[in-house]
Amino acid sequence: NIPTEQWAQVIEKVGGPVEYKKIPVAKPGPGEVLVNIKYSGVCHTDLHAVNGDWPIPTKLPLVGGHEGAGIVVARGDDVTDDVCKIGEAVGVKWLNDSCLSCTFCQQADEPLCLTPKLSGYTVDGSFQQYAIASAKHVAHIPDGVPLDEVSPVLCAGITVYKGLKESGVRPGQSVAIVGAGGGLGSLAQQYAKAMGLKVIAIDSGEEKKSMSEKMGCDAFIDFAKSSDITKDVRAATNDGLGPHAVILVAVNEKPFQQAAEYVRPRGTVIVIGLPANAYIRAPVFESVLKMVRIQASYVGNRQDSAEALDFFARGLIHAPFKTVDLKDLPDVYEKMHKGQIAGRYVLKMPD
Ligand code: 8ID
Ligand code: ZN
């Protein structure tokens, strides 16, 4: 009883508008599954896609979304139970598919695949009731996990978990999270805590401050109130030498040009946020004398995804989220554009 038509949020051209309308339900081809999406988080990437912020064009018309949690309802003829079962809870991630045979896929760097499919960007994503995804790439959501709360893990959670691992920080060390009050930032705070790290949360406004304090951050720095970010971040560490890692998840270029100044000697700056037309900048002299490492990080592979979900299933991850209906996506984009979202918005699909 899969319908032939469904509700979706669609953009016809760069810049939008997003239109709530009925479109056909696709049929899964070889290697694919059809997922009845129940909930989908809204990532700032989806807004970048609408706005045409990045050098790679999206498909058009486009159904956005890449934090889709739902149930497998149909599969391509060749998909077997050991890959993906009918009735199973799965996640439709940013990496909808990768070839699994290029030099990067062979080394488990699936996000670096030379011919990837990207949900809500190069293929239709999770802002619809029925989404197509590669059977080998859907995330397997453990039994008993609530599909609303887990949906932001499917991009935000996986990405920040991977970024924290890439940073090389160890339990007991400190991490500054820049953009801590947003979707990726709030999950980064939770993963960092679960990994035994001290958290310096950097963002702005009372709502994001109190949210961060409720999640147990060790310090909150309001970037709009601070007159000297470098001094304030260093002062927030026990010995005044700065955090061992900085996780950049802001959507503004400025912090990408400040982080190398306050990271600890031998520390690592992890670049994750993707503000339009932005550049990373670091002073050569201080960076050399401090042996600073600057590294970017891009989503995660299937194993990172499973690990990030396992943290959630063990009850270690609780980031604030608000649920609204799929039809309310334009309001969510409006708030996101103004920087007014503390945590994540999750869309509930119509029944
Ligand atoms: O794999 C990746 N690298 C990846 C994966 C997923 C998302 C990258 N991203 C990118 C998105 O495309 C986006 O550019 O990460 C960025 C953050 O996504 P998000 O968390 O979904 O965005 P948000 O919820 O709007 O949060 C952004 C936060 O940054 C703060 C804002 O106040 C907001 O809370 N912020 C800004 I704008 N400027 C800041 C500053 N100077 C700042 N925080 C601290 N200092
Ligand atoms: Zn995302």
TrEMBL record:
It comes from the Eukaryota. Its cofactor is Zn(2+). Pfam families: ADH_N, ADH_zinc_N. PROSITE patterns: ADH_ZINC (PS00059). Keywords: Metal-binding, NAD, Oxidoreductase, Zinc. Coiled coil: none annotated. One of its GO terms (cellular component) is cytoplasm. Residues 15-347 form the Enoyl reductase (ER) domain. GO terms for molecular function: alcohol dehydrogenase (NAD+) activity; zinc ion binding. Its EC number is 1.1.1.1. It is an enzyme of class 1 (oxidoreductase). PANTHER family: ALCOHOL DEHYDROGENASE 1-RELATED. Belongs to the zinc-containing alcohol dehydrogenase family. This is alcohol dehydrogenase.
